[in-house]
Amino acid sequence: MLAYTVVDAFTSEPLTGNPVAVCFAADHLDAATMQRIANEMHLSETTFVLAPQSGGDARVRIFTPVNELPFAGHPILGTALALSQRTRSRSLALETAMGLVRVEVEPRGAQGGRVRMSQPVPVWSPYQRSTELLAALGVTTPALPVTQYRNGPRHVLVGLDSVSELVALTPDQRRLAEHEDMSAICFAASGEHWRMRMFSPAYGVAEDAATGSAAGPMAIHLARHGKARFGDQVWIRQGVELGRPSDLFAVAHHGATAVESVLVSGDAVTVARGHLLL
């Protein structure tokens, strides 16, 4: 049997936010079996907790229904809460294919908590296929330069002029799938926060409810283009169109010459525990 927990990430309310299945003591599983389990769970991501290899508290592998990711935000946030509830530890170092991710967990209520994580600092550059991408999304004129950020997964950020334009998006998923190894992150200002939508048939996710690995790049992108300031917290709301509202908070710190750190936080709540009969 394989024990697992389902955590709704970037929310304090069960059945909202973005769910992740966290499978424990998975060292005996090979990658092909992990991929089949992720497809069986059919959530945007499933994680597998393994014995540490590089000085951390645990090693984590992350799978979408169709591929493995070196890093992803909401799966790490959900895994941190699930591990904290099992071990009673509030400070964890999780090994990922992108390096060590440090997380702090503050319990809130019987099944929930606030999780704060460091993230890999992304690298960025203009997206070379922006014209094709905009056509697939149905966007005529982006509000900011279309830029790709990679911190494990690759996110291409597309700013829009209004929330109404964001809500009205109906991407051509077939044409979008021609853009490999990426997600399209569309966003617009909405008062004190930013609304965001994520589309990624390349990662097996038509639309995601909360994309934690894109929150850090968002904070950097907004600061680079004068829409926010480095060091200030950026509040992002996602998943509204899916009926699973999620709240993500990101801060990017810039040193003398470069971005030095990215911190992302949000609530999470456990909603199920069980066993796979394998």
- How much beta, percentage-wise? 35-45%
Decide which structural class fits the backbone.
alpha+beta
Instruction: Kindly identify the CATH topology of the largest domain.
Output: Diaminopimelate Epimerase, Chain A, domain 1
In the CATH classification, which architecture of the largest domain applies? Roll
Q: CATH superfamily membership of the largest domain, which one?
A: Diaminopimelate Epimerase, Chain A, domain 1
CATH class of the largest domain: Alpha Beta
Provide tags for this entry:
278 residues, alpha+beta, Diaminopimelate Epimerase, Chain A, domain 1, 2 domains, eight-stranded mixed β-barrel, 6 helices, 17 strands, 42% strand
Could you explain the architecture of this structure?
It contains 6 helices and 17 strands. It has 278 residues and is an alpha+beta fold. It has 2 domains: 2-120 and 266-276, Roll (Diaminopimelate Epimerase, Chain A, domain 1); 123-263, Diaminopimelate Epimerase, Chain A, domain 1 (Roll). It has an 8-stranded mixed barrel with strand order 1-2-3-4-6-7-8-17. Helix 2 crosses helix 6 (212-224). The longest helix has 15 residues, at 73-87. It starts with a strand and ends with a strand. 48% of the residues are buried.
